[in-house]
Amino acid sequence: MTTAPGFMCFPWLCCLVVAATTLSDTALQEAPEMMLLQTRLAREPTGVCVPPPNMAAEAYTLPIERVVEAFWPQDGFCVFGGAGAWARECANSRIRKDISNFVQEFGFVSEFFTAPSATPFTFRLPDGRAVTTRDHVYPLDDVYCLVNGWYDLDAEQLLHNFSFLEEASDRACAELEQLLPSFHSISMLDLTVESFADEKALQELMANDSNSAEVTEAIVHGMRVHAAAKCLLRGPARQPGAVQQSKDKSGGKGALCDVSNCASRSRLVEWTDEAPKSGCGHLLQEGLCAEANACACHTHAADCYVPIPLVMQQHPHTDGFCYFNGTAFYVSFPGTENMSEVILAMRGSDYKGLNTGPLVTYKFDGREISSYMDASHYLYDDLYGFSLGFLQGQGLRSDWMLNSSRWTQLSEQMCNNIQQEFNFSNHELVLSDWLDYNAVIAVMTACSAGMPAPGSSKQSVLDMAGWQSPSSCRPVSRRDFAKHHYVKCILGYRNSAMDMAYLNSRACLLEGNRIGHLSECPYSPEMTS
């Protein structure tokens, strides 16, 4: 691909301008849509960005951070506005705090090259995540959005709530700064080299005889470098040399134009439960290991004995439930978000109806709480939800679940509060230990209720719970329950949010410190059976 003299072509999308301008006149006559594309992309953005004239070629080889600081307070995207209309339009959008024009202009290109009749092609990342695209011209954008986790965000919020978009960009840039040792030395030349190399590699993958391909770690790294360069174009958080300079010299919000593009493209790609799950961890052979802890038979067995925070650092953007999928019945990816299905699945054959089970009284944290044990798992889950403050009537409103993004953010806040209070160390957060300790918590919960220990409890579990009898045993503590939930937090806030939703949907705290269930509560999911 050649470019006009003095024009430095950068993804994203600026290369498509060149593609449009290099077509023959005959081709253009045969493709009026391409003429429209050329006209639309060549149009100069209207706004407040005026790039510096005659930018020296050397500037493209220097760290972006240094160049942008030299032009402070001008927006970094505008400083490098000569790279293409995409940079100038991004600068204008951020200065105006309105992403709509940027999305409209470049969303048109995404739609243009994503033909509904095109053959679908699936890219799978090393961590198991996958995306299926029909864009055979510039699939880099779809892989880019997937690698950086931007397809997982609330698209409507990203497109229509600029503050939400800025916050998402802040988080992404802060994470990239930690992931990439070279973050502060990345140049525009690095961005160009990465983009062309990865674009070529992806096109070669699509040229095979299959309808899917495995994305290499090198491409994944390139996608992160690409995103980091956009972060750095934001410019310093405050005037260079000012007192109390922000630690994040990039200012954080430089990725927001690309994040918004991902939100726009997300409706053009295709998702299936099977695609991501096919790359998740799994049991090497069913039935050989205990259901409560199947680590020994798992594809990621070794990591079951490593502190989870370290495992997740080594596999950024990976869902922990996907990575450890199948190590226990409750560690399953992707899992259902339909709470009625979860509740029905947990009931078992012993459920006879509302308030038909025995009434038990927990002695917990200096209080007495009662509940009807309508199903065996109520003994654990009722007190678990109460201890975390997740029951209806404890301040957590069920209607907040209607906004999945808000619910997940709330879960993240709850997780941070838990860690702030209990300060769990890494050696306390090992997956295999967590799986084993679940049975211990069940016995200690029975102790708190003055109930017999679960009949299936092994002697080793009883010993860990200090169990001798219902009156001589160690009761469960808030810390025990908090750690059980916090592990789900570090495995991914989507997972902790689903746990919080389950506990809130099924039960509530009534007057007299009694835990009620389902129809006794202000909110009850519609049960299908």
Instruction: Give the SSE string.
Output: HHHHHHHEEHHHHEHHHHHHEEHHHHHHEE
Poorly predicted spans: 1-45, 238-251, 272-278
Percent in helix: 40-55%
Q: Strand content of the residues, in percent? A: 5-15%
Main sheet specs: 4 strands, mixed
Gyration radius, in Å? 27 Å
Distance between the termini: 61 Å
| Number of discrete helical segments | 23
Please state how the strands of the largest beta sheet are arranged side by side. Answer: 4-5-7-6
Q: Could you say how many structural domains there are in total?
A: 2
Number of DSSP-assigned strands? 7
Instruction: Give me the secondary-structure category.
Output: mainly alpha
Shape: elongated
Mean pLDDT: 82
List keywords for this structure.
mainly alpha; 3-stranded mixed sheet; signal; single chain; 6% strand; 2 domains
